[in-house]
Amino acid sequence: MGRRNEHTREELREIALQAAEHLVAEHGLAGLSTRKVVGHIGYTVGSLYMVFRNLDDLIVQMNERTLESLQARLLAAIADQPPAAAIQALAQTYITFALTETHRWLAIYQHRMPEGQPVPESLTDKVAGMFALAQQQLARLCPRRSPEDIALAARALWSGVHGICILGFDQKLEMAGGRPIQDVTRSLLDHYLAGFTQSPYEI
Amino acid sequence: MGRRNEHTREELREIALQAAEHLVAEHGLAGLSTRKVVGHIGYTVGSLYMVFRNLDDLIVQMNERTLESLQARLLAAIADQPPAAAIQALAQTYITFALTETHRWLAIYQHRMPEGQPVPESLTDKVAGMFALAQQQLARLCPRRSPEDIALAARALWSGVHGICILGFDQKLEMAGGRPIQDVTRSLLDHYLAGFTQSPYEI
DNA sequence: ACCTGAACACCGTTCAAGT
DNA sequence: ACCTGAACACCGTTCAAGT
Questions:
Q1: Which candidate from B159, B174, B195 shows the least CB-CB separation from A184?
Q2: Same structural domain for residues A34 and A82?
């Protein structure tokens, strides 16, 4: 009885991921459980394991989808912008995503693989692809810099913007009279790039 | 039977926190549970609730202890250093702490209060105190800057260094041929400060 | 007053049994 | 082949009962 053959495997996977995304968006990663997911889609626990290896697998696949939609927005923000504007646009778009899709964005970083199990490459690839966007724009901005310098700067800035977002939401660094994270980010980018585009050699 | 009256309330609290710290250091925050804690100290579950309101309360108190020992190391690193060196020392000490006490340090940011409950002030105060160290050194370095500029710069740099650490451990941004996080941090600080100490006005 | 241990409502995961 | 639902080993939290 129940739902037998109502959905293909792919459909089951899709509605399960949608239910998971809904639960996370509403209550955060902690509000996600296998039983709640199947409760939402009218199946029983066992059926989840036909489509996902386990809950971690489901979360990873959900996080990959989040990364894909983030990447799409970043790409749209760059468009045909000149490099300096593109870099600002990347940062502001990342912030906007974090502000609007807070729980789903947080889930990417909150989830940890069980002890010893590595993060799947399919996910790290997507993070790397996103990071490459920043690196490309930085290379356009400073064409005479060595690839090593560019990579270092891209990592410093990407991590920096991410850190501002993470601590901004943590309540844990909610400064009294604190400026909005957009301002902090602009300060980071402008001052770093002022220093970076000016000094020709790495220290 | 059991352990009745073997420990005062304060002693019970202490050994419970020590057991929790040991479990987290060994297996991460996910490896912590009330039953494992009491298993280590020879009590039963119920007794934990004499000393802590619940597991979240225990974790918060554990995280506050971690922040205290981090703050102590940061203070020692500053010593009588001139401001520029003090800022570098703060960053490198933060990194070293994250590298050596990885799981306990991660637990500070991994733990989230249940929906709606705010982070206790006792914890946010300790984070703010730590952050103030950076702000003070920055004010010494740039005495003519407005307090607003200093606060903005302190937040950009603190968040930046934190972001570099977080993404560095996440495996999620483990760049191929990536430079050690110490180098990325130095790049962030040097270039930002080069830009910051030079431009007299905020954009 | 201190502490136990059973009880309750949740969890993730497995798997024999049903269709 | 698909799916169920009971079973197992874990959770956090409460609370009557014991000393």
A1: B159
A2: no
Tell me which chain B residues have a C-beta less than 8 angstroms from the C-beta of A191. Answer: 153, 156, 191-193, 195-196, 199
Does B114 reach chain A within 8 Å, measured CB to CB? Answer: yes
Chain A contact present for B147, CB below 8 A:
no
Taking contacts as CB-CB distances below 8 angstroms, the residues of chain B near A162 are: 163, 166-167
Closest protein residue to C15 using CA and C1' atoms? A46
For the segment B8-50, what is each residue's pLDDT rounded down to a tens digit? Answer: 999 999 999 999 999 999 999 999 999 999 999 999 999 999 9
The whole-number average pLDDT for the span B46-68 is: 98
Give the list of residues 6+ apart from residue A198 with CB closer than 8 angstroms, or none.
Answer: B194, B195
Cβ(A96)–Cβ(B159) below 8 Å: no
Mean pLDDT in chain B? 93
Comparison of pLDDT for A120 and B6, the residue scoring more: A120
The Cα–Cα gap between B114 and A178 comes to: 24
Nucleotide showing the shortest C1' distance to residue A32 CA: C11
Query: Cα torsion for B186, A119, B127, B111, to the nearest 10°?
Result: 180
User: Predicted confidence band at A1 (pLDDT cuts at 50, 70, 90)?
Assistant: very low
Can you give the CATH number for the domain in which A1 is found?
1.10.10.60
Token pair 């970083």: residue? A109
Domain carrying residue B106 = 64-196
Based on the fold, state whether residues B94 and B163 are members of the same structural domain.
yes
